[in-house]
Amino acid sequence: MDPSHDNPILRFKTFCWGIGTFLIFTLLLAVIAFFYRQPAQSPEEIAGITRYQTKTKFETAQAATLTQESILRAMPTVAESLATFKPVAVKKPEQVVPGSPTAEILARRPSNAAPAEPIAPIAPIAPIAPIAPIAPAEAIAPAEAIAPAALTAPAARTAPAARTSKHPPSTPAKKPRRH
User: Fold this and answer.
1) Does residue 77 share a domain with residue 49?
2) Is the N or C terminus of the chain more exposed, i.e. has fewer CB atoms within 10 Å?
3) How many whole angstroms separate alpha carbon 26 and alpha carbon 20?
4) Phi, psi at residue 83, to the nearest 5°?
């Protein structure tokens, strides 16, 4: 930017134009959205209507069947049974520690299940024969044996000429361009 055009007033003016343009487009978008808004009909809302109808049916049926008096009459019986309830330990063979007294008792007790058949041992795998070594590069056929000599280019069949100088060939100097 040219220093003669750079001053704080010009920067502030540009900033205000940017903010104003942004606000105009925001206001335009809000007006369009306000007038063209349609109710959303997503699958969740459509399924929700059915769910709310089912919920109100259940609530009215429950309110008719389960009154406050019946709940108060049932409370002492339920409270008494909960106070006398004693949880029973679950005994499963997979929860028994091997070598414990419970495991020994379970091992001595005959089971109702038929004995499992013993699994036959797996036959040992035969050793794999070693892989033959790959042929050395000299044993590979040359390119002429694969492709006929008539199909190969003559330059490919001849050896390149030996250089006489160790420096690359000189190139002519380029003329400078004029604009």
Assistant:
1) yes
2) C
3) 10
4) -70, -30
Q: Please name the amino acid found at residue 138.
A: E
Q: Which distant-in-sequence residues (6+ apart) come within 8 Å of 157 by Cβ?
A: 144, 149
> What span, in angstroms and rounded, lies between the C-alpha atoms of 66 and 58?
11
Rounded CA gap, 112 and 105, in Å? Answer: 15
- pLDDT, tens digit, 9 for 90 and up, residues 64-111: 888 888 888 888 888 888 877 777 776 666 677 778 887 888 778 776
pLDDT tens-digit readout, 101-135 = 878 887 787 766 555 566 667 777 777 777 776 66
Secondary structure class of 141 (helix, strand, coil): coil
Asked if residue 155 is part of any domain, the answer here is: no
Terminal CA-CA length for the chain:
27
d(CA 98, CA 106): 10
Dist. CA 105–CA 48, nearest whole Å: 57
- Provide the whole-model pTM: 0.24
Residue 72 in domain: yes
Q: At a CB cut-off of 8 Å and minimum separation 6, what does 102 contact? A: 91, 96
Domain span at 80: 42-84
